[in-house]
Amino acid sequence: MSSVMPSITLPARCDRAAAEALLPEMVAALGSGPLMIDGRECQHIGQAMLQLLISARQTGDGAVIEASQALRDVAQLTGLADELFSGSHA
After folding, report:
1. What pLDDT is attached to residue 4?
2. Are strands 35-39 and 13-14 parallel, antiparallel or unpaired?
3. Nearest residue to 41 via CA among 14, 16, 22
4. Residue 31 and residue 60: Cα distance in Å, rounded?
5. pTM, whole model, 2 decimals?
6. Which among 30, 48, 81, 87 counts the fewest CB atoms within 10 Å?
């Protein structure tokens, strides 16, 4: 039995267009166990992507987010760091 986590890699620019483009892939992946989200290349993060990431964390088996420093900084500034990263296995 393999328990490979489905994974999605975020682009460097995580704006509304990127969030809209990733939504179908994220919805499809969330049904098959915890989702690994690789955000290590993120340099610009908009509100739409933050909302999508929070939704991924709260849906199904949730998501583990590997974050760039820029993503961590934005999460801290917006008060969402605990929501996005607490309890993550990264």
Report:
1. 72
2. unpaired
3. 14
4. 7
5. 0.88
6. 87
SS3 per-residue string spanning 37-59: EEECCCCEECHHHHHHHHHHHHC
CA-to-CA dists, residue 84 to 1, 2, 46, 56, 58, angstroms: 29, 26, 14, 9, 9
Write down the pLDDT at residue 2: 47
- At CB < 8 A and 24+ separation, what contacts does 24-29 make? 26/52, 26/56
Question: CA 50, 15, 32, 6 torsion: positive or negative?
Answer: negative
List, for residues 1-28, the tens digit of each pLDDT value.
Answer: 445 778 999 999 999 999 999 999 998 8
Beta strand ranges found along the chain (DSSP E): 7-9, 13-14, 35-39, 44-45, 63-67
Dig out the tokens for 69 from the structure: 């420093």
